[in-house]
Structures are given as structure tokens and as C-alpha cells.
Amino acid sequence: MAPPILSLVLPSETGRVLSIQSHTVHGYVGNKSAVFPLEILGFDVDPIHSVQFSNHTGYPSFKGQVLNGQQLWDLIEGLETNDLLYYTHLLTGYIGSVSFLDTVLEVVNKLRFINPKLTYVCDPVMGDEGKLYVPPELVAVYREKVVPVASMLTPNQFEAENLTGLRIVTEKDGLEACNILHAAGPSKVVITSINIDDNLLLIGSHEKEKGQDPERFKIVIPKIPAYFTGTGDLMTALLLGWSNKYPDNLDRAAELAVSSLQAVLQRTVNDYKRSGYDPQTSSLEIRLIQSQDDIRNPEVIYKAEKY
Amino acid sequence: MLRSLSISRSQSWLGKIEFRIHISSLLKSEMAPPILSLVLPSETGRVLSIQSHTVQGYVGNKSAVFPLQILGFDVDPINSVQFSNHTGYPSFKGQVLNGQQLWDLIEGLEANDLLYYTHLLTGYIGSVSFLNAVLEVVNKLRSINPKLTYVCDPVMGDEGKLYVPPELVAVYREKVVPAASMLTPNQFEAEQLTEFRIVTERDGREACNILHAAGPSKVVITSINIDGNLLLIGSHQKEKGQSAEQFKIVIPKIPAYFTGTGDLMTALLLGWSNKHPDNLDRAAELAVSSLQALLQSTVNDYRRAGYDPQSSSLEIRLIQSQDDIRNPQVRYKAEQYQ
């Protein structure tokens, strides 16, 4: 008799997450940014590394290996043969090709076949600040095939615009974008960063019952004058973790996630300054390990304001 | 075989991130940011860990990286394989890195000045060619940081059985052991490396002395069966030629089999011996206490689930035992040998 999977069999406030993201040997992006925080929050995380690179692609160079769709599927088949495919959550982030994204869609179907209640948390990574940084063909695949199967979606402003065809200039636009996305699929939508009138906002929306008005809120986020890598991946992981703990209070989950993230970023900036480096000089690796207490037990400084 | 990708950006560091900047330029220079884990004072370090990755379960890097991160280390994992699960299951599927692909990653790091590590950690290695590539990594890292601490778990087998290709034994003995700073063999591996049979505690201590003479100043034989008891024997030769400080810790036998415990133990020894560099006994007490608490929790949890823990080998409850890793209650004390 094979041993039971304890993360499923024993009662807990956490779950069993399959996370398909990049792996960089050095630095904190992709799975390096998402897995540790979820583990700190008590989740068993099964990472599939879609690539293994020396460092992220923002450095002057990088070297490494890329997984293709078949190799991803081999891992899924390996898990299936051992009855290891019952997951409570699936998490995906940056995906670099249509073929890999199509395979991920097959993974979603497979996992949902085994657990119809699977929560698919999807960060539809496509670009930022007006610029696409994935092949343009992915946009339609996200819009038409991925969004409809997501349980929770965490686009930034640019991605929300691309997925809805709507330009987001006001908070009302942001809320409308969430409604469009709810109608297409996910019951939870968090637009993780929106620039409105020079303020940075997060807008969250939870459609508790299909057809009902969603509960919506915003959180005003301070702008930190620096650029970081890995923050989107970290944010989505934190939203997964906290929204699992507070399934009916997306606003509470978002407050905790934002507060953790801001603490990580502030510590990162302070630490670069302490080392004598001007944090505005280049993009920064986040101080994830040194901020683990802020991830485990965030002090909620940023409050949600309900609409 | 994984497809290899090697890209060099013709754009400069500044050029790559230019698109994210609203105003003309915030960038004052082309200076790359410092590696904070090296530049800022800390009790931890920057570890390169070359081990297996399994999607599910806790062995290799899945067992070693999280504990070190909990202890405050920045860990850079190179995954020597990516398998669905460990090879003790009825089947497994996945991909294996070859020596060249390992070296590609090292070159990628080198091109970005990212090869200064305080520690190198290795565990299970499945082929002579990969082990030879690892030896080149040791040399490369030491040429950049001569004070590199290489913590080597010379994984070869257990309980009288070899579970790596036999050709590896000589490579470990002749080439790897001389390069290691700390070695964490089990009883079988210590016997293989010293060609010395360990029956008594005195034999265990003698094996440590043989290993010191060959290379590592710190040796921990992580589990030895003597007269029905389970012991750990640790030995620290503080100065070449001096007598080593040696100790033992008696470990309770837990009637169950686990996977990943050796990988976890070596990681904990790395972590705690970095914090207590002159007190290997203290480091071992903390490591053993963490491990035992985790194993006990694991057995209890399987029982709670209605499963007899002796039915098969068990995956450890690593995530659920993180407090025991961060702040172990020291229950198992070291007894110094005089």
C-alpha cells in the first residue's frame, strides 16, 4: 500500500500546490520567488521548472536549458503513474511560447479531471508599462483559452487592458475590466498595479456567485523609487497563500499580500543603500530570505477600501 | 536531453531595462548591483547547491534548500535532474543534466560575476562524468574564493549496499575527499572511503582521522550502528597535524524508513556549523535535534492519517516542521571523547 499524501489527508489551512514557473540558479524570480513564501505559509509546493537558467534574462547574459511541452508532459505522466496528481492549487506565471502555454492548458484539464475543485491561480504575464515582453501570439491564447479556466487572475494594468480590450484610465475602468474578466471566467481578479493620477493602486474583485455583483476594493500602494525583479511572481504567490486562508475575504488576503510585499521591497531598498549602492541605479534582486518574518506574519499597514 | 540555450545580449545592462523607465534616465552608471549576501555582514552565506530536484516529495534540493533558507542562507540551487518523484517509487519520469549543461550554468553565472560563493553543497551524484564536472566546479569556485567551504555528502550507499555505479567510489576517495572542507558520510560510505571496517566507536574515530589526513577538517559520520545503538560521530581537526576534537551523539532509533533525511542532515550541518564554526559538537546537536523532531512529527502524522509508518518508506514533513528547523530544542547532547 502506497503511503497517503499527508498534505491532502490531514486537515490543514494550506494545500498542495503545483507551480509551473522558471528556475534561476541565482536570484529571485519565477519559482525562486514564489515557492519559498508559500512554503513559509505552510503549503507543500511541487515545482515544475519550465527553464533552468543561471540568472534572469534582465542580466547582460544568461545560459541554461528550456523545457519543451513534451518534457513537461513527461513529468505530469510520472506523477500520474504514482497517483500524485491530486492538487488543491495550480500556479503559473511567465510562459515563453504558445506551445508551452497550450501544454499548460492540458495540465489544467488533467488536474481538474482529478480534482474538479482545483483552484487555478494564473498570473497572465505578458508585459508591463505599455510594452509586451512575450511573443504577441500568446495574448489571444491567454484571452481566449486561459482566462476562462482560471479561478483567480492577477494581471497588471497592461495585461488587464490586453485581456479585456479596455483602456484603464480611471478606477471605474479598473472595476469594469474586472467585470469583463469575471464574465469570461475567474471569480477572483486582482489587478496588482494600476497607475491612476500618479497614484499606484491595487484593485481586487470577488464575484461570489455567478451573476451577482462582485465585492470590490482598492488598496493604495506607496511608490518605491526603484525597480525590482520577481515582485509580480511573489505577489501572486502571496495572493494564493492568503486567499486560501481567507477564501471569502479577498480584501483581507490582499491586505496581507500587499503588506508583505511592501515590507520586502522596503527592506531591499534599505539593504542596497546600506551596502553603499544607489537603489535607482539598476533593477534589484529582492531580499526574500531576509524578509521571511514579514511573509510569515505581515504587519498589515495597507488597508483595503471597499467600493 | 534538454535543449540548451545560450544567449548573449548585445544590449547593455542599461539598454535591457530602458523600456521600464518613464523619464529620460534614472541610471547614473553601468554598475551592476552588489551581491548583498556577500557585501552585508551576516551569520549566513551564499550557497551553491548541486543536487536533484523532484517535483513531488523531499529529497535532494527539495530537502536541503528550504532548511537553509529558513536558517537565513541565500541558496543558489543547480538541479542536476528534474524528476516527477524520487527513484524509490514504482516509477519516475524526467530529465537529467549532463556535465556540459552543468558547466553552461556555471559559465552563465561567471559571465555575470555571480560565482563568488561562501559554500558549495553536493549530495547524490549519479555518474563519474557528472562527478568530474563537479570537481571542476570546486576548482573554479575556489579560484574565485579560496576560502570556499565545500560540504560534501559522499552519497554511495547504505547498510552494506552500493546504490551508485561502483566506479564512483574511487573518484570520491581519490579526488573528492581531498577537496572537501566538511564530509558527511554514513557508516557504509566512511568504510568505503577509508577501506576500514567500523565496528566500534574507536574504529569510527579512526576513520575520521584517516579522512582528516586525506582532506576535510570536519567529518561527521552521520549514523553508525554499534551494539544495537545508533550513533553520530563528529570530528574537527582544528589545525593540520593536531589531534581532532571528537564527540558522539546517541540517536534514538525511530522504527521507520524515510527518504531525504541524509540530504536534510547535511544541509543542517552546513547551516549550523557556519553559525558555530569552532563548535562542531554544538552544530551537530542542533542538526540532530531538528532532524529527530522532524522524523518524530512525520511518524506521528502518518499514524494520525491511519497509516502504519512501517509499511513503506515515508516522505518527511519538512514544511510542517519548519519551526523545529529554525529553532530546534536541543534534546540530543554531544559527549566529547577525551
From TrEMBL, chain A:
<protein>
    <recommendedName>
        <fullName>pyridoxal kinase</fullName>
        <ecNumber>2.7.1.35</ecNumber>
    </recommendedName>
</protein>
<keyword id="KW-0808">Transferase</keyword>
<keyword id="KW-0547">Nucleotide-binding</keyword>
<keyword id="KW-0418">Kinase</keyword>
<dbReference type="InterPro" id="IPR004625">
    <property type="entry name" value="PyrdxlKinase"/>
</dbReference>
<comment type="similarity">
    <text>Belongs to the pyridoxine kinase family.</text>
</comment>
<dbReference type="InterPro" id="IPR013749">
    <property type="entry name" value="PM/HMP-P_kinase-1"/>
</dbReference>
<dbReference type="InterPro" id="IPR029056">
    <property type="entry name" value="Ribokinase-like"/>
</dbReference>
<feature type="domain" description="Pyridoxamine kinase/Phosphomethylpyrimidine kinase">
    <location>
        <begin position="92"/>
        <end position="198"/>
    </location>
</feature>
<dbReference type="Pfam" id="PF08543">
    <property type="entry name" value="Phos_pyr_kin"/>
</dbReference>
<keyword id="KW-0067">ATP-binding</keyword>
UniProtKB/TrEMBL annotation, chain B:
<keyword id="KW-0547">Nucleotide-binding</keyword>
<dbReference type="InterPro" id="IPR029056">
    <property type="entry name" value="Ribokinase-like"/>
</dbReference>
<protein>
    <recommendedName>
        <fullName>pyridoxal kinase</fullName>
        <ecNumber>2.7.1.35</ecNumber>
    </recommendedName>
</protein>
<keyword id="KW-0067">ATP-binding</keyword>
<comment type="similarity">
    <text>Belongs to the pyridoxine kinase family.</text>
</comment>
<keyword id="KW-0808">Transferase</keyword>
<dbReference type="InterPro" id="IPR013749">
    <property type="entry name" value="PM/HMP-P_kinase-1"/>
</dbReference>
<dbReference type="Pfam" id="PF08543">
    <property type="entry name" value="Phos_pyr_kin"/>
</dbReference>
<dbReference type="InterPro" id="IPR004625">
    <property type="entry name" value="PyrdxlKinase"/>
</dbReference>
<keyword id="KW-0418">Kinase</keyword>
<feature type="domain" description="Pyridoxamine kinase/Phosphomethylpyrimidine kinase">
    <location>
        <begin position="122"/>
        <end position="268"/>
    </location>
</feature>
